[in-house]
Amino acid sequence: MILREMLTAIPKHKGTDKMQGDLRRRISKLEQAVDQKQKRGGRDLFHVPREGAGQVLLAGAPNAGKSSLMAGLTHATPQVANYPYTTQLPLPGMVQYEDVQIQLVDAPPLSREYTEAALFNAFRLSDMILFVVDLTTPDPPGDLRESVEMLAEHFIKVAPKAPLHQSGSLSTVEKQPLVFANKVDKAGREGALGLGEVIGSGTRVFIGSAETGEGLGELPRALFEALRLIRVYTKKPGQKFERGVPFVLREGATVMDATPVIHKELADKMRFARLWGSGKHQGLSVPRDHLLADGDILEIHAG
Ligand SMILES: Nc1nc2c(ncn2[C@@H]2O[C@H](COP(=O)(O)OP(=O)(O)O)[C@@H](O)[C@H]2O)c(=O)[nH]1
Ligand SMILES: [Mg+2]
Question: 38 C-alpha to center of ligand 2: Å?
């Protein structure tokens, strides 16, 4: 797309801000027009409504094993085949990590030959990206680089320390990546060398096989950690704690952030909260701005 090339060609300094903004608006208008076409029957078939604690989209070249990995991690049954473009529309499934469900979305490939524009919108709206790389190809890091570059061309930057939850706005969004080097049953581990550097230091790379299941066991926890989620349980005053379904919050959430999630009216009415967590807070009263940790138990006193 010529407009995009213009945008990357403009040097970035104060004086060009307006020009860049103008180009961005034009690009966005065009993308919207394209997307309209994809909205058959008023629904964007590429956009998967978020469910569970977070949405992770699978990315990678054709035949890398995205659908196989999806089948290995969820109860979904995507079509797996030995020819490219088997997966034409995103398909969601749920990954179970302990008592939390994370949505994994199998997606069509990122390919220079053919990738629908609407797919990039789906990436834009996701919480993070799980790259699947085929270790049996001549150049696995090159394959990963191509996927990363295609996303970058659509203003989706992958960065290990990307802030979570950004709006799907016009400007560049950053997405947290995780890499799964697949088909180790058929290739050496050497192919995975250099995969981390493609995205940058701090990128977590897992090696395994979607076919044999090797290396899949660590992924649910890795996804949970990468999404930077915490689980908070609640306890009613005067009652024994029974571990129920957790409230899932973002890392950095405070007692005050948790209350409206637990109960709509609680935020206004809270007098104080007691907390049981790892370490020192065994039933102590905590201030509203107290930072919550994964596994904390909250007892909110309202009135
Ligand atoms: N040997 C081996 N083959 C795999 C593995 N994962 C996927 N495949 C094969 O690779 C081909 C493409 O898999 P698929 O999941 O459809 O790839 P996708 O296009 O990325 O969704 C199929 O023939 C799979 O059976 C693996 O871990 N080891
Ligand atoms: Mg597929």
Answer: 20
